[in-house]
Write a structure and sequence with these properties.
about 350 residues, Nucleotidyltransferase, domain 5
Length: about 350
Amino acid sequence: MVTIIGWDIGGANVKAAWLTYEHGVTQDVKVASLPFEIWRQKDRLPEVLKEAFTQVTLEMPHAMALTMTAELADVFRTKREGVLFVLDRMLTAFPDCASSALSLSGDFYPLLEAIQQPLDFAASNWLATAMYLAGQYPDCLLMDVGSTTTDIIPVLGGKPAAIGYTDLDRLKAGELVYTGALRTNLAAIVHQVPVSGQFCPVSSEYFAISGDVHLILGHIIPDKYNCPTPDGQLPGIGSARQRLARLVCADLDMLSTAEIEEMAGYIYEQQLEQIQRALQQVMSRLPQLQTLPVITMGLGAFLASEAARRGGLAAQELGTEWGRKASEVAPCVAVAHLLAAHLERV
């Protein structure tokens, strides 16, 4: 029996998955996700890693597998610096555990070797998901909508068929979309919204985020709104309406509940359109995807499923098979499985 912890260390969240694995069969999975804005207190990363560790296990695993996206945070001068920081803090937090990082080539390397070529390990979490799920769904389209971003990953013949591997190339290919279920500034989704029969330009201040829209519309519950609110209030429908009113420089004395809900519905439609445009871009390159299933996952799986449905595609939520919590942290569950299988082979 092999025990593994898979990690997905992002700029806004630290996610972990504990996996018990024997002879190719998963015996147990436990997951944790902690909000952690690395640009605010990056030196707390080892502490947060240990906290996530204790949420999934009380014993050291045989090995750990690492993916990351935190290197993009602007607290680091370069992505190289960010990768090296994450690798170093993993070694600091767990010096006695054999830990490996997944490279963009799809291979595992011990952390001390990964340090030699840091850019090979930047933004590798999407690849872990694609490589693992390709074994279960050899021909499909994966859509993972998280708190911040959307991944659109074609899988053909049991292998990822993405053309972009770096964030830059994935953005250009439509395989990465910077829109998510919680943290997206609404001014990045809309430039105007309907208010009382007229379109009103929005402010570009940090007044409200996508989590407010989805809370108001009932797509998420307050417990899922696990990032800081723009105004520092606790997440709730009432405070979300206050924040959304400020998007048009108003407040709850000036706008009715119906007017605010109309704004929220319009923003939701525009966010769906962002995802649909990227989906169409990927589909135009690989028209055979039109007949294949779309596997949706992440905190914003509801966005992925609706975008797929409107595109005439058959959507299947990974949460139905894995459970919602595991589906919301798919990359760290996937990378744990990949390393477990790798260790059994060698």
